[in-house]
Write a structure and sequence with these properties.
It holds the Pfam family N-glycanase_C. Keywords: Disulfide bond. The chain has 350 residues and is mainly beta. The protein is built from two helices and 20 strands. The protein has one domain: Jelly Rolls (Sandwich), CATH 2.60.120. Strand 2 and strand 3 form a beta hairpin. The longest helix has 7 residues.
Length: 350
């Protein structure tokens, strides 16, 4: 299924929707409605985004997502009518976070791929360096078979976001493919969106996810209508911002609590960023022989996908539950601040 073909994601007040593609947040979010066929057990689903710089030279946060339509309100309402029409989350730090978590009447958008653009791929390939032959396109491909129960036979808005402030922006192509397979890894039948703090409507006034500066962090309440067996949290996390003391470049512990008890904690950290140097022609070079794109980061690298973590939660009973994410977010440095983009989907068998 071809979703986008060489479409522009940029920042421009001239950005307009047409009959095929809807554009929001000054062109940084693009959407298309896709009808999924029946996807049977044993079939695998892959999503692939190919991206090139069309003028923006920087490493940007990107996401491919779908908008659940099973409650009276959806993220689409926020895109059309403004982010403040979505449910509000506050934790006492004075900021207002809209549309980031499930409520009785709302589900947040569900990530298919979290990706990060490389520094200037293709558009800046004229920047020559000894012994470097630059790549011309960044491919981001991920197996999303675990989301099958939420996709099969559904008609859904599929979207892509790249957070940039450049009129040239980025060019993207997006394809979703279904493959027959003899191996069925995922047996669950429930996909329950819980939270997604990535501020896709940044260019339409959505707050950065800075809620981890308070002890409460992110606290989500949800109600299960049925018992959920072999529950897993599909958790995606990346740390951003700050200067040299910012959370982008400092390892930070992520702790996840279920109903008040610690379920899992780990330090999300990527040390392999230098593997993708040839995708980053516009990366700044330092006197020590390293380039900006080489540096280790909080679970992401320029030019790569960030993998989700699958956290086993056991069997969950029908009724109310709480999930909490805590991260010791660093303080502001002058005009610079840290933020954490975290998303979580509950998988299991009802």
């Amino acid at each position: 299924m071809k979703v986008f073909d060489n479409e522009l994601i940029n920042f421009s007040d001239q950005s307009k929707s047409d009959e095929n593609i809807k554009r929001f947040a000054n062109g940084t979010v693009i959407l298309k409605k896709i009808k999924f066929p029946k996807i049977t057990e044993g079939e695998n689903i892959f999503v692939e985004l190919k991206q090139q710089s069309n003028g923006d030279a920087y490493d940007r946060t990107g996401t491919v997502f779908f908008i659940p339509q099973d409650k009276s309100q959806s993220f689409f309402n926020g895109l059309e009518n403004g982010v403040k029409t979505l449910p509000l989350y506050e934790n006492g730090n004075g900021k207002q976070y809209y549309g980031i978590m499930t409520t009785e009447n709302y589900n947040p958008p569900v990530e298919m791929i979290r990706f990060f653009t490389a520094f200037g791929i293709n558009k800046f390939n004229n920047l020559q360096l000894k012994d470097k032959t630059w790549q011309t396109v960044s491919p981001y491909r991920e197996d999303i078979t675990d989301l099958k129960p939420a996709l099969s036979e559904k008609e859904l808005w599929i979207g892509a976001f790249i957070g940039n402030y450049d009129k040239g922006g980025h060019k993207v192509s997006l394809e979703i493919t279904i493959h027959k397979s003899d191996q069925a890894i995922y047996k669950h039948n429930a996909v329950i969106p819980l939270f997604n703090t990535l501020n896709m409507m940044e260019m339409a006034g959505q707050e950065y996810s800075t809620m981890f500066d308070k002890e409460q962090g992110l606290l989500v309440e949800f109600t299960l209508k049925k018992d959920l067996k072999n529950a897993q949290l599909k958790y995606t996390t990346t740390g951003h911002g700050g200067w040299e003391n910012g959370d982008e470049f400092l390892p930070k512990l992520n702790s996840i609590f279920l109903d008040g008890k610690m379920a899992f904690s780990f330090v999300p950290w990527r040390t392999d960023c230098g593997s993708y140097r040839l995708y980053n022609p516009a990366s700044g070079n330092f006197p020590d022989g390293l380039s900006s794109s080489d540096l280790s980061r909080s679970n992401w690298c320029p030019g790569t996908v960030t993998n989700p973590d699958f956290i086993p939660l056991g069997d969950l009973k029908v009724g109310k539950h709480k999930i909490q994410v805590k991260i010791p977010q660093g303080p502001r440095e002058g005009s610079s601040f840290s933020a954490w983009n975290v998303s979580g989907v509950l998988l299991g068998t009802e």
